[in-house]
Every structure is written in C-alpha cells, then in structure tokens.
Design brief:
Length: 269
C-alpha cells in the first residue's frame, strides 16, 4: 500500500535486453540527458560491470569510490553512492568491474533478488527529488537484471534494427512475466525502442514492420536513427545532446523523452 504522506516517489525504469550491442547504455545516457534537459531530476543506476554508463557520463574510475556493488552487497547508504555529473539534474550511481562477481556472491543471499529494490524504493531516496531512475542492465538475464526488474516499475527494451532482432525478445518477455508472477506484480513493459534505424535500408523497415505487427502499441513511435554523432559522443564522455545538440540523434532522444512523458499518467495528473 502506498504512503499518502510520502512525496511522489521516482518512477524506476529498467533498460534491458539480454543481447549486447543493441543500445541499452546509449539509450540510458541519452534518454536521461533528454529528461534532465527538461528540468526533471534523473538518477542513472549503472548495473553493468563494464561501467559504460559511468564512463559515458564522465565519471572516471578513480572517482567511483562507492558503486552499485557496494550498494547491493555492502549496505552502503544511497546518499554515499550517488554522484553528480556535468549535466544539471543528471546523477549517477556508477559501476566498476567488481560488479562482475556479484552474481556469485548473491547466490547465497536469501534476499538476492530484492537488494536493489530495497535500496531504490526506500524513503531515503525522497530527499533527492528524483523524477526518474533509469537502470542500465547488463547484456544477460542474470541476477543483476533480475534485481533491476524486481526494483523497477517498468522495462524499456531497446531493439536493434537488424536481422534476428526479434529473436530472444520472447525470452525477455517470459522473464518479465515470471518476475511479475513471483516478485513484482506491477512490473510492465514501458515500450520497445527501435535503435540504429536506417530508413534507407529495407531490413530496418522490415524489422520495424515485424515489431509493430507483433507488438503493436508496445513499440514506441520514436525510432533512434543510426547516427555517427550518437556513436562518437561516448568517446568524449558526453551525451549526444551535449556533444551535438542539433544532430538527428539528439533530436530523436528528445522526441523519445517527450513520448515517454506523454505516456506517464503520474506527470499528466
């Protein structure tokens, strides 16, 4: 039961797909940046041992004293793990390679699937006034991804506009269904986002048609184009909105943020 005296808690979105290279981290960083640009307060939670969201938001490894590893396994306070980034309104809980051992260490913990939920859904998070928490998941359906889905209100699925794109999506949907039945009954699919889309390419259009035919309104109207500026931005530790604000990639992520906000009944109220 929700606490009526509690300020509006942030909406938690897990950005997940067990396939690598589909745009999870890119979407996490740039959607977060687009929402922050609108004045919303955003927390990115880097749950991938590669730590690419942390690097892409300009947080050097030496500055990652407390990470998602400590948050999950060492009971570090939320306020100690949250870092500011160079973009106003955009904050981060970073990750390091230490997180790669978390799966093994979590196995013996009775609350192994609920540790991230316990950290992010506590009232301690209210003091930061976050509107959204975006969780960048690893490219597998392991215990880290399960933690993200148990903690989240919804799952956003980036889908690369290439051959075999829809393969594996059924397994992800099955995992969401299992978590809904066992640990998080309110979990839903936020939407499926087509990434690396090339309108000149018949294959991209075919993948889009297949996705919309099979998934209907679950597929975002916004598509993220294959754009060199989107690819270049992480090497400068910037979002594409900061790197090239006028690029097609930046425009697409702003459009995605608008679409997400239009769908959000909390903010429409």
């Amino acid at each position: 039961m929700s606490d009526p005296s509690r300020p509006r808690a942030p909406k938690i979105i897990a950005i997940a797909n067990q396939k690598g290279g589909v745009g999870k981290t890119t979407t996490t960083i740039n959607l977060g940046a687009a929402l922050a640009e609108k004045g919303l307060r955003i927390l990115v939670v880097d749950l991938d041992p590669q730590g690419n969201s942390s690097t892409g938001l300009g947080i050097e490894p030496d500055d990652r004293q407390y990470t998602t590893y400590e948050l999950l396994l060492d009971d570090v306070a939320l306020e100690d793990a949250i870092l500011s980034t160079d973009q106003e309104n955009l904050h981060l809980i970073p990750a390091t390679v230490d997180l790669s051992s978390a799966d093994i260490e979590l196995v013996s913990n009775e609350k192994r699937s609920f540790l991230l939920r316990d950290a992010l859904r506590q009232t301690d998070i209210d003091q930061f006034g976050f509107d959204y928490v975006l969780i960048d998941c690893p490219p597998s359906l392991n215990l880290l991804t399960v933690n993200a889905m148990v903690a989240a209100h919804s799952v956003l699925v980036p889908l690369q506009s290439e051959f075999f794109a829809l393969e594996g999506l059924s397994q992800l949907m099955l995992t969401v269904r299992e978590i809904r039945q066992s640990a998080n009954p309110d979990l839903r699919i936020e939407g499926v986002l087509l990434t690396m889309y090339d309108a000149r390419n018949n294959l991209s259009r075919q993948v889009e048609d297949d996705a919309r035919d099979n998934l209907g309104d679950l597929v975002f109207s916004t598509v993220i184009p294959r754009n060199v500026r989107v690819s270049e931005a992480p090497s400068y530790a910037m979002s594409v909105l900061s790197y090239d604000s006028q690029s097609k990639g930046a425009a697409a992520y702003r459009e995605l943020a608008d679409e997400l906000l239009r769908k959000d009944a909390r903010l429409a109220a």
